[in-house]
Write a structure and sequence with these properties.
Number of domains: 1
Largest sheet: 6 strands, antiparallel
Strand order of the largest sheet: 1-2-3-4-6-5
Number of strands: 6
Radius of gyration: 18 Å
Strand content: 25-35%
Number of helices: 2
Distance between the termini: 61 Å
Length: about 120
């Protein structure tokens, strides 16, 4: 928490930890599979993290993220090591947050919006 770039925000009813402007960890204390430590990461980084941390598994809902369930015997040890890697800026951890949409903005890109009226000739 002493890291100047650290930000803690609610997300999915959990606590999202941001460091260096990236979403690094999600601390979850809800019903399974939302109970443990979620590790946002790019799919390319997953094999290296899975090899280093056998307790990590692919999250059953957000398959692009990894997860240490609260039932893992070494949850605290793995969690502490993940925090160390996040503080060090390990590129395998974290994802860039998606920019917030303006209120009322369409989900579709402007180029694919349907016209409401025929084009004037």
């Amino acid at each position: 928490m002493e890291e100047p770039s650290f930000v803690l925000r609610p997300m999915f009813g959990c606590l999202a930890c941001y460091l260096h402007g990236r979403l690094m960890l999600l601390l979850a204390d809800r019903r399974r599979p939302w109970c443990g430590v979620l590790v946002p990461t790019e799919r390319e980084a997953q094999p290296a993290l899975l090899a280093e941390f056998p307790a990590l598994v692919v999250h059953p809902v957000i398959k692009k993220w990894l997860y240490v369930p609260d039932t893992a015997d070494d949850l605290e040890t793995v969690g502490a090591r993940l925090v160390e890697l996040a503080l060090a800026g390990d590129p395998r951890l974290g994802v860039e947050p998606t920019p917030k949409r303006r209120a009322g903005a369409s989900m579709r890109p402007a180029t694919t919006r349907r016209r409401l009226r025929p084009a004037a000739r």
